[in-house]
Amino acid sequence: METVLVTGAGGYIGSTLCAVLLEVGYRVIGLDRYYFVLDLLRDLIANPNFKPVVHDEREVSEEHLEGVAAVCDLAALSNDPSSEERYVLEAVARSTEQQNWRV
Ligand SMILES: NC(=O)c1ccc[n+]([C@@H]2O[C@H](COP(=O)([O-])OP(=O)(O)OC[C@H]3O[C@@H](n4cnc5c(N)ncnc54)[C@H](O)[C@@H]3O)[C@@H](O)[C@H]2O)c1
Asked: Which of 25, 68, 69, 83 gives 20 to 30 Å between its CA and that of 51?
């Protein structure tokens, strides 16, 4: 069973993607700062193939990628009104550094 790391797993798209990946047979690591306290994931928490990780994606290290076959990078400030006014925040959140650990 392959493992997929989903960043932004607690968000609108990430939470749905995690459910779909589990349904089709992947193990899923759901990494997020979880601003919304795992609310959207409450149905997934009981699934033994789902592992929530409370972490900032800008500080992801090699250990987070151990055994990971693919990364779906959805962490963003997209629904945060501050992002619309200050798009620089979004650019910082998705810094070029993180491109280096994309699979
Ligand atoms: N929702 C849409 O209709 C839509 C449409 C097109 C593209 N997108 C893109 O898809 C992506 C996800 O969108 P969404 O609607 O699910 O957003 P969302 O705001 O619902 O979820 C984003 C998640 O990222 C997390 N996050 C933010 N910064 C983080 C960090 N540094 N480390 C870890 N987690 C962090 C937040 O806690 C949140 O749970 C975004 O890049 C967005 O631009 C969304």
From this structure: 83
Query: What is the distance in A from the centroid of ligand 1 to the CA of 13?
Result: 7
Task: DSSP letter for 61, please.
Answer: -
Domains contained in the chain, number = 1
Q: Domain of 88?
A: 3-99
Q: What is the pLDDT of residues 18-32, one digit of tens each?
A: 999 999 999 999 999
* Ligand 1 centroid distance, CA of 77 (Å): 6
Tell me the best of 17, 20, 32, 73 to mutate to test the pocket of ligand 1, counting ligand atoms within 8 Å of each CB and taking the most: 32
Contact 93, 26 (CB under 8 A): no
SS3 52: strand
Full-model pTM: 0.83
